[in-house]
Design brief:
It is a single chain. By secondary structure, this protein is α+β, with helices and mostly antiparallel strands. The chain has one domain. It has 3 helices and 8 strands; from the N terminus they run αβββααβββββ. An 8-stranded mixed beta sheet has the order 5-6-3-2-1-4-8-7. The longest helix is centred in the first third of the chain and has 19 residues, at about 1-20. The chain is globular.
């Protein structure tokens, strides 16, 4: 049983890394943002305010400010995905966003699969996220990815 669990964790982690290392035209997309605010509303809920740099015509660059309601909620996801996307990884992504806010650094922020979801009766630039992941690619570039649906 222990060997099976380790194997599942390895497969799940490799699957997440494979998803995030695909070209942007495949399953992952990313953009550059200024982090305006990272606020902890409660233990499982953070509000992120991000300004796209440079702005653009397509979502999310079309937003003056992208507001992300971030929770860590993988209850309906498979065991493999829950293992690959840990609370610790989510907290690390939030830490990187806070650091960027403090230093004024521009951060790469993106989505894997269905990374955001619209929030009923909210403006289009206000979205929900069920998990964040901080990934450092082989080339040394780092990205905070949002996931809403299971990849």
């Amino acid at each position: 049983m222990l060997r099976t669990t380790r194997a599942r964790r390895c497969v799940a982690a490799m699957a997440l890394l494979a998803l995030t290392s695909l070209p942007a035209s495949a399953r992952a997309s990313e953009w550059t943002f200024e982090v305006i605010e990272v606020s902890r509303e409660n233990e499982d809920y953070h509000l992120l305010r991000l300004r796209p740099l440079p702005p653009g015509r397509k979502f999310p660059r079309s937003c003056e400010t992208l507001v992300v309601h971030s929770t860590f909620d993988l209850n309906e996801w498979s065991e493999e995905s829950r293992i690959a996307l840990s609370r610790e990884g989510h907290e690390r992504a939030l830490l990187k966003l806070r650091q960027a806010q403090t230093t004024g650094a521009i951060i790469r922020f993106g989505v894997v699969g269905r990374g955001f979801a619209a929030i009923k009766e909210s403006p289009p630039c206000e979205v929900a996220s069920h998990a964040l992941a901080y990934i450092v690619h082989d080339d040394g570039s780092a990205v905070v990815y949002s996931l809403f649906g299971e990849p």
